[in-house]
Amino acid sequence: xxxxxxxxxxxxxxxxxxxxxxxxxxxxxxxxxxxxxxxxxxxxxxxxxxxxxxxxxxxxxxxxxxxxxxxxxxxxxxxxxxxxxxxxxxxxxxxxxxxxxxxxxxxxxxxxxxxxxxxxxxxxxxxxxxxxxxxxxxxxxxxxxxxxxxxxxxxxxxxxxxxxxxxxxxxxxxxxxxxxxxxxxxxxxxxxxxxxxxxxxxxxxxxxxxxxxxxxxxxxxxxxxxxxxxxxxxxxxxxxxxxxxxxxxxxxxxxxxxxxxxxxxxxxxxxxxxxxxxxxxxxxxxxxxxxxxxxxxxxxxxxxxxxxxxxxxxxxxxxxxxxxxxxxxxxxxxxxxxxxxxxxxxxxxxxxxxxxxxxxxxxxxxxxxxxxxxxxxxxxxxxxxxxxxxxxxxxxxxxxxxxxxxxxxxxxxxxxxxxxxxxxxxxxxxxxxxxxxxxxxxxxxxxxxxxxxxxxxxxxxxxxxxxxxxxxxxxxxxxxxxxxxxxx
Length: 488
Description:
Layout: H1 25-44, E1 49-55, E2 61-67, H2 71-77, E3 79-81, E4 107-111, E5 117-118, E6 125-134, H3 144-157, E7 161-173, H4 191-196, H5 198-211, E8 215-220, E9 226-231, H6 236-256, E10 260-262, E11 278-285, E12 294-296, H7 309-320, H8 322-329, H9 335-338, E13 348-353, E14 358-363, H10 370-373, E15 375-378, H11 387-404, H12 421-426, E16 430-431, H13 436-445, H14 447-453, H15 455-471, H16 477-484
Parallel strand pairs: 1-6, 13-14
Antiparallel strand pairs: 1-2, 3-4, 4-6, 5-6, 7-9, 7-10, 7-11, 8-9, 11-12, 11-15, 13-16, 14-15
Helix pairs in contact: 1-2, 3-11, 5-6, 7-11, 8-13, 11-14, 13-15, 14-15
Keywords: Ligase
Pfam families: Gln-synt_C
Organism: Actinomadura meridiana
């Protein structure tokens, strides 16, 4: 998807305190004027309504919608929404934290007009990610999109930018009700699975293209009924917006074909789950470059696998903070049914060149394209993650690595599970948390996460995670998978 700069006052952040970005009268007027122009264009395309979405702490996309003729007012003054959604559990029950909880209070959802897109899969509808503000015009401290914006600006303060993209995995069911019945049964990665659902996949590709999403590839995955789509990398905010848009397009096209799509990290207890791997590359303007184009810090250096020192430090920072990152990247009880050794899920805190069992897989790309293609794939994230919150935490970890000039350990070229415990200990390879409770403890103990995301975020994320741990206390893997299956 084409990168579109966010230039409207009140919708950008410079890496400093959120309360410096209050929506004032001038900003509201400009937003309203721009929205009025957008609404006229949408009406000419037979768009009737705009879905304003945000992703909650449990990774569920929530929405309020407005008719096109109300878009101008929504952009200037927002649409009311309770802050209690930040403490919704995945079953829509409600917990509370020290900062959020109860029926009182109101937030205002403001559409990000630069990212508004008509949805080809939902004729008559457009989608816009929303930013959440308090009634006084200040940014809500739990707005994950604003957190991600702040982290991109903090990196920019040091002269860095990041390109990112999510791989979206999903499974398609033809069953009725809550049961999962795989919609195709050909061999894993087999052409037979494309043939079985060729019309469905064709319509999906067409809908994504017509919505403005550039698909890099689509293929069958390992589990029955499972597919994966990859899109082109873009700025982190765009990558998270696109991840939401792609998922909702998949959901809509699936329903049109009489199918149901699930992005759950564990669709069936005895099968592999859905990941949401994220690819990251670190870039810096190069003044000595005659074309004045950015250069990729993941290639062309003297470090491991050709990384520059900054690229290595960025990767090392993410590796260091992976246990804490799982609280936002593998955020459900079901996530730990997926995150097991020898399943290509990345269950060990290590990195390796093209190693699909390492939590961090380094991808160089082919000779001749490495300057553009080299990137880091984080494999331990899954489909229950809020993409904005997960990316914000990843960027903060990478920024910490750059700031402290971290170095990577030796790469791992095999499945870590095949090594003995002594061999892993000698190489500094540790298992990632094996439960949500373990990742929450690591998250709360990580000072960087607290500093980068804020006390309100750490407290609320932890409260929601503990609520879901209690929700599934004593449940079997089959019960956990069934209860989670259609929530994401």
